[in-house]
Design brief:
With 477 residues, the chain is of the alpha/beta class. The protein is built from 15 helices and 7 strands.
Length: 477
């Protein structure tokens, strides 16, 4: 008969329980980690251009996001509003060409009308059309004049006229306009000039025209950088580009009336310093949340379009658990509506009571967000929702800057719009061969963008540039 099995002692049971508890703690920690990883993967999977900073080109063609906007209805009907004047063609008093048409027969007796029959009036129709594609050739003759002393003196060539035959400022302006303003490749620029204007250009001519334009823009670059340094509010952004098959960065500094681009090999402070605006800027910067922008200017404002997209992404991933994000969206959009209404009414500032009420709504939503997303276990990574809450707390003053200074916009859309043009050029050309070439293109683009913001025709300012009289942005009143 075998020996009786020994019953575990109290100490044995304590060790077993401790071992099981340790295993349970490890399983719970793994479970918590896996839940966090699963939530993060679901968040990333749900991301698209409507609820994050991802570009529309990254959206799946099989799962296009439904259009969603943070804008609220204005209450106005779609289309032109009552009182809108419209833009129909108006008759001109002095047409370029007048063509008279005589009736062939009488509408009464049906007899043939004589050629000298009296005309007693007319009705009219004006047709606005393009001229036939042809170049206008101007021959400059430098006369040789004999003085009474017998010496013969020849007149000097006009400015810009050097060769026996050459293209004028208008043709150079057309080539640069197509290359820089319309993002047309060189070969198609040459083809279009021939088809539309009868100017048979080469690709080399288009490249040379761009280089010549950039070489005349030193006065413009000095003026626009100086004006941006003195601006009360300016927008700043950066975006990746390809130069010599490697990643570079284009930096933009802009206002509603000024644009300045500069390409650099670095994204951070070295590139910002090379652009020449931020190190000397004395106003309020409007940027995204990238930390390299901190410390510039006298005050900073965050782009709330980025904040709204991040909040929308958090709420879209977990609508029930992250209701605070929707409340924060409502608080920010309500505050933006109040600031916009104040500007439209011609007010210089919101009242302190208005600001306090709007800030309280936002602060309450953020506090709920912090309690909904508590501190993670030691060494565990914070969820994106918690990181967003921390950013809203840490950058609160910059997020709500637009409430305290009505000159500050709610978003940095101005910089987004201006830098988008470089992305279009990237799609067309794939990049630039050299950094110098990129900066020449960006300099001309700065010139055309700034002129357009002042309501000027880009072809006109390019003609002036090639005629030796570059346009310069005026100093603010």
């Amino acid at each position: 008969m075998g020996l009786a099995k020994r019953q575990p002692s109290y100490d044995d049971l304590v060790r077993v329980i401790a071992d099981l508890q340790a295993r349970l703690d490890a399983v719970e920690a793994d479970n918590e980690r896996l839940r966090a990883e699963n939530a993060e993967l679901k968040r990333r999977l749900a991301q698209d251009s409507s609820n994050s900073s991802k570009p529309p080109s990254s959206d799946s063609p099989f799962r296009k996001p439904a259009p969603r906007s943070q804008r609220r209805s204005s209450g106005r009907k779609p289309g032109a509003q009552d009182g809108h004047e419209g833009t129909n063609l108006e008759r001109v008093a002095d047409p370029d060409t007048v063509v008279e048409h005589r009736p062939a027969a009488c509408g009464g007796c049906e007899n043939v009308l004589a050629q000298d029959a009296e005309a007693v009036g007319f009705s009219w129709s004006q047709v606005f059309d393009l001229p036939e594609p042809r170049l206008i050739v101007t021959e400059h003759r430098m006369l040789k004049v004999r003085c009474h002393c017998g010496h013969i003196t020849r007149a000097d060539h006009p400015h810009g006229v050097k060769a026996p035959t050459q293209y004028g400022p208008g043709v150079h302006a057309l080539a640069v306009y197509q290359l820089v303003h319309q993002h047309v490749p060189c070969l198609r620029t040459a083809t279009g000039a021939a088809d539309l204007h009868g100017a048979h250009l080469s690709e080399g001519f288009a490249h040379t025209a761009l280089d010549r334009a950039a070489s005349h823009l030193a006065p413009f670059s000095e003026r626009v950088v100086a004006l941006l340094q003195l601006a009360d509010v300016a927008h700043f952004d950066e975006s990746g580009i390809r130069v010599a098959s490697s990643l570079h960065w284009v930096h933009v500094a802009c206002t509603t009336h000024l644009t300045w681009y500069k390409a650099h090999a670095k994204r951070g402070k070295a590139g910002m310093a090379d652009a020449g605006v931020l190190p000397y800027f004395t106003g309020t910067t409007v940027t995204d949340a990238w930390s390299s922008y901190l410390g510039y200017g006298t005050a900073g404002a965050l782009c709330n379009a980025h904040i709204l997209r991040d909040l929308d992404g958090v709420h879209h991933t977990d609508p029930t658990g992250q209701q605070w994000a929707k409340a924060a969206i409502d608080a920010l959009t309500t505050a933006n509506d109040a600031a916009h209404a104040a500007r439209e009414a011609g007010r210089e500032a919101l009242t302190s009571d208005e600001i306090t009420s709007l800030e309280t709504q936002f602060d309450h939503a953020v506090r709920v967000g912090r309690s909904t997303n508590p501190d993670p276990p030691p060494k565990a990574k914070k969820s994106f929702a918690r990181q967003l809450v921390d950013r809203l707390i840490r950058r609160r003053e910059d997020i709500l800057r637009f409430l305290h200074d009505l000159r500050v916009p709610f978003t940095s859309n101005q910089a987004e719009q201006d830098i988008r043009m470089t992305k279009i050029q990237m799609k067309v050309s794939g990049g630039w061969r050299t950094l110098d070439g990129a900066n020449r293109w960006l300099l001309v683009r700065s010139y055309l963008s700034t002129a357009r913001k002042h309501g000027l025709n880009p072809m006109t300012v390019l003609r002036d540039l090639f005629a030796g009289n570059p346009w310069l942005p005026p100093a603010p009143a």
